[in-house]
Specification:
alpha+beta; two-stranded parallel sheet; 12-stranded mixed β-sheet; 32% helix
Length: 444
Amino acid sequence: MASNFTAPIPVVGTVTSPFETEEGDAQNPQPPPSRKPLSLWPGMYHSPVTAALWETRSSIFETLLDPPLHAPPQTQLLTKTPSYSRTSILYNFSSDNILREQYRDPWNEVRIGKLLEDLDALAGTISVKHCSDDDTTTRPLLLVTASVDRMVLKKPISVNLDLEISGAVIWVGRSSIEVQLEVTQSTNESSNTSDSVALTADFIFVARDYKTNKAAPVNRLSPETEQEKLLFEEAEARNNLRKRKRGGERRDFKNGEVNRLEALLAEGRIFCDMPALADRESILLRHTCLENSLICQPQQRNIHGRIFGGFLMHRAFELAFSTAYAFAGMVPCFLEVDHVDFLRPVDVGDFLRFKSCVLFTQLENPEQPLINIEVVAHVTRPELRSSEVSNTFYFTFTVRPEAKATKNGFRIRNVVPATEEEARRILERMDAESLLLDKDETGQ
């Protein structure tokens, strides 16, 4: 199947929704009454990208806004190619002043938090497109973000140059879908395609039946090119690894790892028992923590009525950035998001608490010290006296070179745990980081 949308979808700057003042021409002064006003769609004002995507895909999304729950489910699975779902969006930063100001951060780069929202919105659009059967007599699937496998920033993203995000479905299972996205930005000096890739991300979605909320089968995927087949095989391997991880409980530490645990705790115990003798180059993990809270509002919901996954990532990133800033004492530079699981949905009206800490630092390379931040999102229900984890995010930052150059006596402290629980969390993340590094070096 060939995609109906091959050209990049242009994004325009918006101060207010362009659909609020939509007017017809002289012959037709009112918008068509048969179509739901786009200004009433959930989450419209959050991002110009969301507005552009939903306007372009209106025929697909209008069914999802009011799904026919009593209609029969899709019975015939289709076979689609990656090219069918491939979608691109284009930010005209070089010519659109309003758009540029909406995405500018204080350092004249693109706000990563807003970009996370856009990536989730685009990945959701791509997954919906792959799962659509173009049959209005069947009920559509409920698609939710299950996880973000990994997101890596390869170079700074300028807000003065045009930016493009493109992606497609690269793998499907029975009820799960993996979408791979690339953010590209070419410079005037280089026309090399590989040099233009600024960020890569893999999103995993799961399909549910709207009526029963049980897992539902999705359309098959038929990769055509050698590159598409390679991506499919790599995604299949990642999926098998995720299954093995889910199948095992939290691992027990072996003898050698117990020694690592004790070594981590040794300095923390000195901080607790003899603080005057503690290492001044270290700091307790608990003293790096920040927290914020919010009530989830209707404007933050996605097309399915739940809180938009991109909004959660945006808020988690902003807290992680602030935590790294307060810890380092200078402006941090984002590097990557490690695997993120969306453990439970977040609903409108939920009381959401984000808690962050510097989990550990890596100081082997003085030119690029690494600050690893953990952000845990809790859905808190005071009336039920309950608090459940909805998401755990792991962000890695370093320090901007220009910031280091202006600060004499620059140093990043070592973070130490005070409890066995904290020590276990640190070791598990250190081991996960080492595994990712090994994979990057071997190319597997």
